[in-house]
Amino acid sequence: MFKSTTGLLFAAAFLATCTISQAGNTVPVPKPSPITVTQKSPVRFDQLPGYTKAQTQVANRIAARFAKAGYGRPQQIAAVSVAIRESTLNPKAHNRGCNCFGLFQMNRSRGLGTGHSISNLTTTDYNISLIIKEAKRFNSFAAAKNVNEAIKAFVRNVTRPGNKARVVNATVKTAKKVQKSANQRRVASIID
After folding, report:
1. Residue 178 CA: distances (Å) to CA of 2, 28, 59, 80, 82
2. Structure confidence at residue 40 (pLDDT)
């Protein structure tokens, strides 16, 4: 794979500087289209033990949206595990103590939920979109090589709870259970 990727990149760079001589006229070779990164395959949960079918569908939606955003298996499992800890996969979850709403418990007073309506924050895709937008700001989350690293980066940088160490440890325990239920299959209907 490395050789073919390197060869492709070399050929693209070479062609970008080439010209063709046609009947005495020099014509530049058209530049190739940019190489695009393909979407990652979403993790799929047939049934999360201890959770309803509806909650499992929400977990699949989170994984699919993170895959579509270019995140791999560790980040998808981390995101689902955080949502389980935050809201038990309930898009309508509300914590009155912190004025937090939705799957990822967006704080409307002084957090990611500031300026957003309760209706939007408790909409599955809207809440996921906000958390993905915030996650994109931190390379440590995207660069995580395993679920534990992804959870640490996500909790410390994206959700930022008061007691980060305790939340990271609890979420890692949740993730161990989540990983056992995760299959890797391409499921287009979840994203579309």
Report:
1. 32, 54, 10, 8, 11
2. 86
